[in-house]
Design a protein that fits this description.
The protein is built from ten helices and four strands; from the N terminus they run αβαβαββααααααα. The protein is of the alpha+beta class. The chain has two domains: about 1-80, Glutaredoxin (3-Layer(aba) Sandwich); about 90-229, Glutathione S-transferase Yfyf (Class Pi), Chain A, domain 2, CATH 1.20.1050.10. A four-stranded mixed β-sheet has the order 2-1-3-4, with helices on one face. Helix 2 (about 15-30) links the parallel strand 1 (about 10) and strand 2. The structure holds glutathione. The site of glutathione has 11 residues, from helix 4. Keywords: Cytoplasm, Detoxification, Transferase. GO terms for molecular function: glutathione transferase activity.
């Protein structure tokens, strides 16, 4: 019984960047886990019971208790399994990493996808707005192999799941070259480094199915927006 409770479970959704970053951390730490794929439209009683506030994935279950919100889950994982640390030890660097993760999830991702799909002020303006935000990341990764330094860490997982393995795929089917090499050489170098990391390649959603999923999402956002206007 005790052994059963210790077992780690992850409730996730295959195309979710938030789920994907948690899987990366578990794999990097070598933590065995049971993956429970969720329907994020018709939600399971288990998901509703474990995350009654947001009703979202990912949910990590450890020792029978749910841990919610991907970036908090990453912190929990790092503090619970201390091998291969993913957060900086230095308090300033740690606070900055958390700030940038929040910036990417809450500011950049909506501008780079939702606003772009709606293109209220025109597509060129939307692209410019997104690129201005992405430039902060270009500066942050300048001269480093990874955001975390020499090895992949927390920010690489957060930004990696949101930009190269989500945003770039969406921008591609929209015909937008959002992060051209000439404008963002450092980010492009970082993406190449990230592609070399085995656990990253293992965790990212399969490309073609993911692009189809992102297309469906874009269509849904567009028609909801048209109905409002
Ligand atoms: N801030 C949350 C976001 C999680 C999230 O948006 N999950 C999506 C899947 S990518 C979801 O469960 N959506 C279901 C819904 O919105 O009802 C986190 O970092 O974990």
């Amino acid at each position: 019984m005790a052994e059963k409770e210790e077992r780690v479970k992850l409730l996730g959704f295959w195309a979710s960047p938030f789920t994907c970053r948690v899987e990366m951390a578990l794999k990097l730490k070598g933590v065995p886990y049971e993956y429970l794929e969720q329907d994020i439209v018709n939600k399971s009683p288990l998901l509703l019971q474990l995350n009654p506030v947001h009703k979202k994935v990912p949910v990590l279950v450890h020792k029978g208790k749910p841990i919610l919100e991907s970036n908090l889950i990453l912190e929990y994982i790092d503090q619970t399994w201390t091998n291969n640390p993913i957060f900086p030890q230095d308090p300033y660097k740690k606070a900055t990493a958390r700030f940038l993760a929040k910036f990417v999830d809450e500011q950049l991702a909506p501008v780079g996808f939702r606003s772009l799909v709606k293109a209220e002020k025109g597509i060129e303006v939307a692209i410019k707005e997104a690129q201005e935000l992405i430039m902060f990341l270009e500066k942050e990764v300048t001269g480093k192999d990874f955001f975390g330094g020499e090895k992949i860490g927390f920010l690489d997982m957060v930004i990696g799941t949101m930009i190269p393995y989500c945003g770039v795929r969406a921008w591609e089917f929209m015909g937008i070259d959002m992060i051209p090499e000439e404008k963002f050489p450092e980010l492009n170098r970082w993406i190449k480094n990230l592609n070399e990391v085995e656990i990253v390649r293992e965790c990212v959603p399969p490309r073609e199915e993911h692009i189809e999923h992102l297309k469906r999402n874009a269509k849904r956002i567009k028609s909801a927006y048209k109905r409002q206007t």
